[in-house]
Amino acid sequence: MTRTDDSVDEAVLARIHQLYGRQSHLIDGGAAREWAETFTPDGEFCSPSYPAPVAGTDALEDFAERFYAAAQDAGEVHRHVVTNLAVYRLDRDTLRVQAYLQIVATARGGESRLVRFTTIDDRLVHIDGEWRIARRVVSRDDR
Amino acid sequence: MTRTDDSVDEAVLARIHQLYGRQSHLIDGGAAREWAETFTPDGEFCSPSYPAPVAGTDALEDFAERFYAAAQDAGEVHRHVVTNLAVYRLDRDTLRVQAYLQIVATARGGESRLVRFTTIDDRLVHIDGEWRIARRVVSRDDR
Amino acid sequence: MTRTDDSVDEAVLARIHQLYGRQSHLIDGGAAREWAETFTPDGEFCSPSYPAPVAGTDALEDFAERFYAAAQDAGEVHRHVVTNLAVYRLDRDTLRVQAYLQIVATARGGESRLVRFTTIDDRLVHIDGEWRIARRVVSRDDR
Q1: Torsion over CA of B76, A99, B86 and A13, rounded to 10 degrees?
Q2: Are C32 and C61 in contact (CB under 8 A)?
Q3: In the prediction, which pLDDT does B2 show?
Q4: Displacement of CA B37 from its chain's centroid (Å)
Q5: CB contact under 8 A, A117 and C109
Q6: CA atoms within 13 A on the CB side of B108
Q7: What DSSP designation does C38 have?
Q8: Residue C114 and residue B110: Cβ atoms within 8 Å?
């Protein structure tokens, strides 16, 4: 595992912390299009929880809408809790970001429970003045 | 939902991460006055877990003391776990901060449990050279 | 409790967030030597979960290897979830860092559970151009 390179300076790290902090609020709050736009136009989302990778803004938006609708249909609120961000520079315009991601569900009038523990391993690129996710790979601890 | 504005630069973001990191240690450790002083002198705390909003440093201090005493009376330690900070600039001296806030309780000699999952939506103002919370609105996922 | 000093500027805070974000991935992923090297060469790890303090890079590496092997033997993945970092400057080359640390375990094919809630209180020193942990004290909420 590479070190978190000192060339990931505080200005870059601030943008990444903002991106990851905000991203969960988007999908969990039903802002599907804005969530999709945290990826590049051809960005890929690969998770063992779903049958096939999802790629491209429109498909990512659909995916986020279905995630949100499924929680609502279940009478629950689902949250993506992101912790332990570690940011590595691959080259000038490319970063690798690792993080822990816990899915927590709460039933209306009920208890909150940890649904699953996953890790994410992302490749980010710098386009149009901002960092976006080109590829996300999710791994589940129960697999 | 607004974007996390790039005008929230790394210097401001550092202060906000420090404020939110530290704030939980204060209330969870019984430093009620210091917790109250992370709010403005007339700061407001609005939460559906309590009958009425709490406003002003003295009332906030009382609130924090009661929170800590209630946990102790129950033979438990209660923690405010803050994640997913997203910081937005409203104007030069005003920020909006969203975050996830989980309350976790641990009984002496017992297990830890997630008591509830909440979100916070705060308005911060810059006074006397530091950022303080002017108004916090807590929402519960189970409501 | 001291305030998070403004002299912990954004450049220092970025390094500390990177260190703590990355450190959990190391021990949880079996990179025992790299985890040990986040401490100073004579760094100390003091936790009530283990019979005696662990000191020095080799002993810390052994400790991390045993942690990882124990989880594997149990057919589980164990994670160190770090939140609520609060960083205080003690002097030019010394920092204090407080954080919440939750241990979450997931059985292969099973559920995830919060094993214990702990707090960490670290002293860091700046050597060879980077911040390392000179002494970590872990406290358990169930004790």
Answers
A1: 130
A2: yes
A3: 47
A4: 11
A5: no
A6: 7
A7: T
A8: no
The residue whose two tokens read 């590049």 is A40
Angstrom distance (rounded) from CA C31 to CA C68: 9
- Token reading at A61: 């938006």
Contacts of B85 in chain A (CB under 8 A): 17, 21
How many helices (H) and strands (E) chain B has is answered by 3, 6
Chain B residues close to A11, C-beta within 8 Å: 9-10
Find out whether A77 and B106 touch, Cβ atoms under 8 Å: no
With tokens 């994640």, the residue in question is: B83
A140 contacts A48 by C-beta, under 8 angstroms:
yes
- The distance of C123 to chain A (nearest Cα, Å) reads 20
- pLDDT tens figures, A2-20: 455 567 999 999 999 999 9
CB C19 within 8 A of CB A5: no
| Among B11, B142, B12, CA closest to B90 | B12
**Per-residue pLDDT tens digits for B62-73:** 999 999 999 999
Report the distance separating Cα C41 and Cα C55, nearest Å. 8
Give rounded-to-5 percent helix, strand, coil for chain B: 30, 45, 25
Under a CB-based contact definition with an 8 Å cutoff, are residues C13 and C95 in contact? no
